[in-house]
Structures are given as C-alpha cells and as structure tokens.
Specification:
Helix content: 25-40%
Order of helices and strands: EEHHEEEHHHHHHHHEEEEHE
Radius of gyration: 32 Å
Structural class: alpha+beta
Shape: elongated
Distance between the termini: 95 Å
Number of helices: 11
Number of domains: 2
Low-confidence stretches: 58-70, 217-270, 295-303
Mean pLDDT: 75
C-alpha cells in the first residue's frame, strides 16, 4: 500500500539528449534514487529528467603504457543510445510496477540491456542495491566462462571507478580462477592487456598486491596441480640378486596439495615376490589363498 501511494506525485519523463523515451511515477523515482531525490526536491515541477550519457573510451596505445583508472569519455554511438533507451524503458516499467500489487523484476531482454540497466542504477541513480542480482548474475556467468571476451569487456566498460562492485567481483573471481589453475596466468594477462580491459587489469594488480600474490602476467615454469612430487625407492644395495631386489617394497610416495594440506599417497605400495609376481592386497586382508598377477615377469613361458 505504501508503494501504491507513490503514484500521487504524478509522472516525470525520462529523456536521452532531451528526447523522451519513457515516463515513470515521480515519487517512485525519488524513492529509489538519492541523487534524483535531491534534484526533484529542488525542482519539484521539473517535467523531465534528462540523461546525457558519456561512456568510457577504449584506451589505445596513445593513452600510454600505464593503465588508467579514469578513462577519457566520449559521446555514445547510435547503437549505444538505443541500448540505453531500452534500459531506461525497463527501469521506468519496473518503477511503475512497484506502484501496483504486481511488481515486476528488474531485468532486460538481452545481456547488453541488462548491463546498461546495472550501469544506470548503480552509477547514475546511485542505487546499486536494486541491481545486485544482475551483478551476481554477470560474475557467475563470467566465472563459468559462459561469456565471450568481448562481453566481459563490455561489463568492464560499464564500471565506474575501481570501487564498482562489479569490477571488484570480476577481479576477485579472476584471481581465484588463476590461483585454482582454472585459467593460466599467460591467458589471463593476455585478456587484461586487451583494449577496454585496463580498468580490470589495474584492479587485479592492486588486489594481488594487497593479497601478497604474484602480479598478473607472471608465468611460472610449472602450473601443475600436483606439486612437491618426490619418489623414493628403497632397495638393498648390498644384494646384487635381481630377484631378491624385486622382493623389496618399491615405495612411491606422492604428496598432493589438496586445499592447502598435504595428503600422503603411500597406499600405492605394490609387493612383488621373488618370482616377479604381484601380491594382491585384497588376498592379504581376507586370508584367502594369495592370488598373483603377472608383473613384468621375465621368465614368462618357462616352467
């Protein structure tokens, strides 16, 4: 009932470059946006709220080798304007539905439109709490590699500043993927160096420095999951008889890093009798007659 009372303030137009694209309840817009609350309180009879979006310009080689957190701005292209128009229409319809018994979720018809919706609500209207579900969705898709490189770049371009929630989450998830060996440092650094990704690159480098990790772009000689592998062979060096030597236990000990803890893999010991046959471990446990499997038997075929 409280939301339905927001319609009493009448409607206000949403325009882009002074061209109307939608109308929405004035009080509803003021309720969700602190910045527009201040504006419409100062100008209570303003017929419209005009948006003149400027977008971050892709940083080329002439921007210098050092990544910039404050990228130069340029006016949107016609294609970008259409996406922003669609986003404003979705926001206006969502706000209108909030004033009815059947509110609709704030979503878009495509990834670019939803990216724009998140951008407008989080960075223009100052209401990131209403699009946290979209931020979580984008980060999850990126983490599952369900987005192309260009799509992730568009997400990065929609971020404003290094403290943008989407940028922080993408950087943290990328570092996690690198740490878990789900993405190589070489591949990650190649992506971060691409045009349009400088903001994310700077954030990743800053987070890695704060976490005490190796900076992005450092490629180790080995990125295997299994590390500190050590093989120890115990044998009687005083016994030159090859059959007796094979009767000793050949211990292969592998230390596997699992969740930061070492797991001893010493249960892979294989016993060989003097004739070169493997003694099955299950026969020793149940007390049944020992069954043997052929194990590099050099006398195969002989009596």
């Amino acid at each position: 009932m409280l939301r339905m009372s927001l319609v009493r303030g009448g409607l206000v137009d949403l325009t882009i470059y002074n061209r109307r694209v939608a109308s929405t309840p004035r009080f509803a817009l003021m309720a969700v946006s602190p910045s527009l609350f201040a504006f419409l309180t100062k100008h209570p009879h303003a017929p419209a709220v005009n948006f003149t979006f400027d977008v971050a310009k892709a940083c080329r080689q002439d921007c210098g080798s050092k990544a910039q957190l404050s990228l130069p701005k340029e006016k949107m292209s016609d294609a970008q304007i259409k996406i922003h128009e669609a986003a404003l229409i979705e926001i206006a319809q969502w706000l209108t539905s909030l004033c009815t018994p059947r509110p609709k979720p704030l979503t878009g018809t495509s990834l670019p439109v939803e990216t724009c919706i998140r951008f407008i609500c989080a960075n223009i209207l100052g209401a990131p709490e209403y699009v946290q579900h979209l931020t979580d969705k984008f980060v999850e898709l990126a983490a599952k590699f369900a987005l192309t490189g260009s799509q992730v770049t568009e997400l990065i371009k929609s971020c404003r500043g290094e403290d943008d929630a989407l940028l922080v989450s993408l950087a943290a998830k990328l570092i996690e993927k690198k740490f878990d060996n789900q993405i190589s440092a070489k591949r990650m650094y190649g992506f971060l160096r691409a045009d349009g990704n400088q903001l994310l690159k700077s954030k990743v480098e800053k987070l890695e420095k704060e976490m005490g990790l190796e900076p992005a772009g450092t490629v180790k000689e080995s990125e295997a999951i299994f590390k500190n592998t050590e093989v120890e062979f115990e044998a009687d060096n005083n016994d030159v008889n090859s059959h007796i030597s094979r009767s000793k236990k050949a211990r292969s000990r592998v230390y596997e890093l699992v969740g930061g803890s070492e797991v001893d893999g010493d249960d892979q010991v294989v016993e060989i009798d003097v004739d070169g046959w493997e003694i099955c471990q299950r026969d020793k446990k149940d007390g049944s007659p020992a069954k043997k499997q052929k194990f590099k038997h050099k006398n195969a075929g002989k009596g």
